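Bumping my old thread because nobody answered last time. Still need a sequence for this structure:
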């Protein structure tokens, strides 16, 4: 009677196949890792899905965020390795919302030690009232004008800073047009959207802690018009936010 045949092990084939896969794909995988590290700690671009920063940032803009503007973080964490600067008034920053951890984009209005108040949508910081000059839609970039919906656009100037803000014909529930005065604590910032009557900002979420700030938005990489078949807004490509 013949003896049963013995099947030899092929365990040596599996490591060889794994090595072949690694040799073929290692370049791509290393590229993915480097890109993730780069976007986490050095620079990133973020989609803006809301209208809270109109007229400076439109829905469909992809903003470029400099994550080395203020400090160096360990990738994928909020731990700082080094710190060389702090946000200043009028910087556009990205940060994690205090309660939800959601990424938000707003403008720094008041820094630690400032006393801020608002009287009928007019800012007062350290006792100085902001100056407001009306801007006509025709004087704005072509892509911005359709997003205004007949709202009032003003140039707001205060304490050596200036920005374009929009005041709406109606106010989103929970948005305060009058508050304060409030003193900004140490290591905290008061942030607001440029679309003053339709922005969930420090008037609702409170002060933003320095440690939650991820970077500074400097420019728009590119922009897609969601209301026009996602066509690109060519004039907004690589436009400056400062």
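Sorry it took so long. Here it is:
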């Amino acid at each position: 009677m013949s003896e049963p045949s013995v099947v030899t092990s092929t365990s040596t084939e599996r490591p060889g196949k794994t090595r072949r896969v690694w040799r073929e794909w290692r370049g791509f995988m290393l590229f993915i890792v480097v890109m993730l590290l780069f976007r986490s700690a050095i620079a990133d671009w973020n989609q803006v899905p809301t209208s809270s920063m109109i007229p400076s940032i439109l829905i469909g803009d992809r903003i470029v965020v400099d994550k080395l503007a203020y400090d160096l973080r360990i990738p994928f964490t909020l731990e700082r390795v080094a710190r060389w600067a702090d946000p200043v008034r009028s910087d556009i920053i990205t940060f994690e919302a205090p309660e939800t951890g959601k990424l938000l984009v707003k403008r720094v209005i008041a820094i630690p030690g400032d006393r801020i108040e608002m009287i009928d949508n007019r800012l007062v910081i350290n006792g100085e009232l902001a100056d407001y000059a009306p801007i006509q839609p025709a004087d704005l970039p072509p892509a911005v004008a359709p997003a205004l919906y007949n709202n009032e656009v003003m140039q707001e100037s205060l304490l050596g800073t200036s920005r374009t803000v929009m005041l709406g014909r109606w106010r989103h529930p929970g948005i305060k047009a009058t508050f304060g005065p409030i003193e900004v604590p140490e290591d905290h910032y008061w942030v607001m959207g440029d679309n003053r009557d339709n922005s969930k900002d420090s008037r609702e979420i409170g002060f933003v802690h320095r440690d939650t700030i991820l970077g500074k938005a400097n420019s728009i990489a590119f922009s897609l018009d969601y209301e026009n078949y996602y066509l690109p807004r060519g004039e907004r490509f690589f436009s400056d936010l400062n």
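The chain has two domains: 12-41, 43-240. Let me know if any region looks off to you.
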